[in-house]
Amino acid sequence: MLPFVVAGGLLIALAFAFGGIDAMSPGNKGTLGFALGEIGAKAAFALIVPALAGYIAFSIADRPGIAPGMIGGMLAANLNAGFLGGIVAGFIAGYTVSFLSRSIRLPKNLEGLKPVLILPLIGTLVTGLLMVYVVGVPVAALLAALTGWLKGMQGASALLLGLILGGMMAVDMGGPINKAAYASSAALISSGIYTPMAAVMLAGMTPPLGIALATRLFPGRFSEQEREAGTAAAVLGAAFITEGAIPFAAADPLRVIPALVAGSAVAGALSMTLGVALRVPHGGLFVLPIPNAITPVLGAVVALAAGTVITALLVGAFKKRAA
Q: Which residue pairs from 153-158 have beta carbons closer than 8 angstroms and sit at least 24 positions apart in sequence?
């Protein structure tokens, strides 16, 4: 799913850069901005949910699950069930095709029909009918409620969501908790909700950047090898690779991890409170120069800087001097 989100989001941002905020309006048809918007929004973004569903099904049922999953995902998109409907369609298709593959027995000379004809056909039929008659409408209603709730978040509720998402990014730095926050925020991009993704990316950049700053502010807390590794952590943090902080956390988890979580939580909370929106699910500092990829840029910089400084100060306060 992510390459479709990245390509589509950046192309939409470039459409706004070349054609202004109304680049994709019908009156601008024929312009470069309109064309870029069509490629990003009508092509790349249209494939996000089908790709998500298709490869969930693929992970369960191998290649015969791809077509039923993608078709179920397309139905989810058409029924306004969004990424939630895509997830459901992927599981329905995957487990249906997996069950059929185990249950259907054919003579050896006809066995080749199963993966290319029988399994995709029956799997698509079952998945499609369930999406249209059973799953689509209630999941669409659930997504609409979720979308409305997230878009209406202001003040304390936005701050709380940012704190939670930010903290999740630093708890295990690339582990399942981190990935849960990241994947859910990336999926929301397809529904036009961009603020959680910004909070997640900025909070995910904070741990390695904060550690790198701490090695400069408090060199006595780190060994010579760790101080040298701080430079690499800064580069990884700039590229939104949270795992750059793992060696430091592994060496002193009880002191370092709380500092990382605190800084990331602050970055996430500030990002949500300031309404920072990110249209692409990755890129780190390298998306800042791209017009409209992240807005407002100043809010993003403030959130990232605050989280980084807090992480560095807490690491310096918590860690003992290196032997």
A: 153/195, 153/272, 155/273, 158/195, 158/272, 158/273, 158/275
Dihedral sign (CA 270, 274, 280, 284): negative
pTM for the whole structure = 0.73
3-state secondary structure at position 291: coil
Q: Is 56 helix (H, G, I), strand (E, B) or coil?
A: helix
Show the beta-strand stretches assigned E in 200-281.
277-278
User: 143: burial class by Cβ within 10 Å (0-12, 13-18, 19+)?
Assistant: buried
Q: Which two tokens stand for residue 120?
A: 């995709």
Q: Residue 277 burial (CB < 10 Å; 0-12/13-18/19+)?
A: buried
Q: Are 301 and 198 in contact (CB under 8 A)?
A: no
Long-range contacts of range 17-24, CB-CB < 8 Å, 24 or more positions apart? 17/290, 17/291, 17/292
Reading the block at residue 170, the tokens are 């630093």
In this structure, are strands 294-295 and 277-278 parallel, antiparallel, or unpaired? Answer: antiparallel
3-61 pLDDT, tens digit each: 887 788 778 778 877 877 677 888 888 899 899 989 988 898 889 889 989 999 999 99
